[in-house]
Design goal:
The chain is an alpha/beta fold. It has a single domain, classed as 3-Layer(aba) Sandwich (Rossmann fold). The chain contains nine helices and nine strands. Helix 1 crosses helix 7.
């Protein structure tokens, strides 16, 4: 059974993955916010490299980078910028470096659709077609810029050290999705990545043999703004629940 470590595992996606992956993988969670330290959960600040590397369990097969500050605004003030750089870039570099030093063969990075948010408005592509991974990644804010920077430094680690790095440009993931999707239905009906599809996407990334790749994570919603054909072709991702499945039942 593969040993999978969720770094930032107490957030929305981490919560979903902890309960969704545990049947097939040995799942651990590291986060600055944990209810209590346990055999499978440990308080860890990924910005502290020594603390991070000491708390990653022996024999780990996959690190999943789910780090977040909760700030996805556009251009921010200097204090917020420093915090975001520390979490999104410096701590992400620590994770990649830990994988290299501990001989962990794979890092899955929860990137973001905001890497290309210049091309999207209210859940619709402004290009007249779906946005794909070959479109130059213009971002409207620091969040998307930093996510792209981590994708790129991941390529360097993959190229130099042979680490498999999978970047997943996640759409809109919600806990309590049957009510949360309606809070911004105009966008969410197109951008939603359902809970079951979130689990499926990360599972396929964990078991893939791809050396380096970038994929959009979105369910097969009507008029979704991003093309995820390569996730279907290269990862074997199959969407099992989309926004129509919720909306039509209300």
């Amino acid at each position: 059974m593969r040993k999978v470590v969720l770094i930032g595992g107490s957030g929305t996606i981490g919560t979903i993955l902890q309960r969704g992956l545990k049947q097939e993988f040995d799942v651990y969670s590291l986060d600055v916010n944990v209810d209590e330290n346990s055999a499978n959960s440990k308080e860890t600040d990924a910005k502290n490299f020594t603390e991070l590397i000491n708390n990653i369990p022996n024999g780990t097969d996959v690190l999943i980078n789910l780090l977040s500050t909760g700030n996805v605004g556009r251009l921010v003030n200097i204090s917020e910028m420093n915090d975001m750089v520390d979490v999104y870039f410096k701590a992400s570099y620590n994770i990649l470096k830990a994988a290299e030093e501990l001989n962990i063969p794979k890092v899955v990075f929860a990137s973001s659709n905001h890497v290309t948010d210049y091309y999207e408005s209210e859940g619709k592509s402004k290009l007249g077609r779906s946005i794909n991974v070959n479109d130059y990644p213009y971002s409207e804010g620091l969040y998307g810029v930093l996510k792209l920077a981590v994708e790129n430094i991941g390529f360097a680690f993959s190229n130099q050290y042979g680490i498999s790095v999978i970047n997943l440009r996640i759409g809109s993931v919600k806990l309590n999705e049957e009510t949360e999707i309606y809070k911004n239905l105009k966008r969410n009906r197109h951008t939603w990545l359902s809970e079951v599809d979130t689990i499926t996407l990360f599972k396929e990334a964990i078991i893939s043999d791809i050396g380096y790749g970038t994929f959009y994570g979105v369910s097969d919603n009507p008029n979704k703004p991003w093309c995820n054909d390569n996730a279907k072709e290269k990862l074997g991702f199959v969407s099992k629940m989309n926004s129509n499945d919720i909306i039509k039942n209300k």
